[in-house]
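Lab meeting minutes (informal)
Scribe: AK
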Amino acid sequence: MKSHAELMCSLADKHDVLISLIGAAPVHYVDMPVHRNIGDLLIMLGTLHFFKLHKLKISLKSAYFSYRSSWARAGDVIVFQGGGNFGDLYEGPQQARQYVIEKLSGNRIIILPQTIHFRSQDAYIECCKIFSMHPDLHICVRDRKSLELALPMSRNVYLLPDMAHQLWPIQRSCSLEKHHLALLRADAESAGANVTNFDVRTDWRELVGCRNTWIRMIRGVLRALHITHLDRRLLFNEVDLWVKYSTKLVGEAIDLFSRFEVITTDRLHAHILSCLMGIPNTILNNSYGKNCSYVSEWTGSSNIVNFSSEKGIPAPHDYCLAPNI
């Protein structure tokens, strides 16, 4: 049985398949998260670290709402951010992916590791029709149920762990102060888990606090630059400033986690961050079984990980799965 350190190293190594897919081509990195979700920021920083480590050339960085398909040239590789927004649970990113994939049939397109979840079979079928028409689309998924959902979309589907694993290892930034942190969702993915005997209970939004106003301002600036068709180099500079600010926010999450001996969470990336820091953690399921599937596939064999299945939380096989098309 692998040690926790060996397991984490092996998960980061699995991304090497992306090196040959991208090669020396210029990369358009699209759907960079400009919001307060620390988990998505961890994915972004892990992805950027991977690009830098392997000397992959990023020629353009963009949020999903500020990317123009007309910027792509022959030979450019379009790489979409990984995460959990593949499907119809969140408005915006999926529509942008479908539009770009439809428009750029001559470019290689890579979707980094995602969890796929559709509530509407019609939306799933429409996505499959659009994606399956692209001759060079590569879809990376984080669990086997997402793999099943992706197979009708592309001949090139890869089962890979989350890109945040590229940040291994992360050291504690301060000394232990308390025993138990409960970081629990209060959004559409919450399964209403009941956790007791914690010292502190919080969520990403409490960590970010009033600075979310500043984050919304950044989104507004990026949207304005996009709408007014100002020089795209100015847009890229704004994105780089956001990456620096995101690094600060993630650093604060690391500071918070460093203070605790154990962590209980229903957020996948609070679990992954705990693993990256070597902190014993219990992960609960989210509303549609994403966490259970991820732990079963990648992190469940670690001796510092415990999965707790709360009553009423669906198991992975309860996902919405549209019929074969």
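Next up, CB showed the second protein from the same session:
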Amino acid sequence: MNVRRLIPTTAVAGAVALGLMAVSACSGSDAAEGGDDGKLKVVASFYPMQYLAEQIGGANVSVTTLTKPGVEPHDLELGPRQTAELNDSGLILYLKGIQPAVDDAIAGSGAEHKVDAATLTTLESHGTGSGHDHGHEGGGHEEAAHEDEHGHESEAGADPHLWLDPAKYAEVAEGVGKALGKADPDHAADYTKNADALAAKLNALDAEFAQGLKDAKTRTFITTHSAFGYLAERYDLDQEGIAGVDPESEPSPARIKELQTIAKEEKVTTVFFETLASDRTAKTLAEDTGLRTDVLDPLEGITDRSKGDDYMEVMRSNLAALQKALGAE
């Protein structure tokens, strides 16, 4: 899984304890009913969940995010105030497997409504190189959980980066609409309407990608962060990750040699890096192979370096970058 440095269990436990103390004076009914303004309090784990909550919740919700702009989501450490937000929320929207510290804190929170976006669609497994054998269906959520190479429990090695496939993200949007309706029945119709509208926009974006990439001269792209397995599978592309799901890890000499061969054979033009992690590895490989570098944003957060102000804009920037790199312009 795309998990880097785990937060020690004792630190998480301490944060949870402090958070519980901080909200001990708050009544459980306040969290369920909403804040003083009558809006449902929604806590989102990181940007892709925040975007869903804001778009679908609209004027009926007050959304806060645990991962502030510019913070690498996988490395997030929760403080007492953030843990208090969890316990004082009407609904928590998160994606299990991305942020282990968040997963642990949510498991220990007293919030009544907790929604793991991974349960709203079917997850799949994707390796460092997707190739034409893009992995297999992960069996949804019936497969037994296990500990990945970082010691964090995940579901059968499933890839959590579902939001980078607009069609799969649309499925999640529909599920979020239903979840908001359960947490706030008085506005269920609004949530359903907004979820349907967002799903329609995402499915239209899916069609843009399919049309924009169908005539690509090459189907292979190289990226530091193997976050694009769902996108590659959806549009019949081949993702080759430099160092797997961890963009900060160092690739082996054998992997570098393999990528040099792939770049030559598949007529690769560009090595992609992302905005929230170092571009050192990508630039080194590009220099060694005579390739260009460009940004392919995994959309784990929006900052002033992002090529767009929201999910839709950045995804269209990603499409333009892929079209240029794959010769599909």
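CB comment: The first helix runs from residue 9 to 22.
No objections, moving on.
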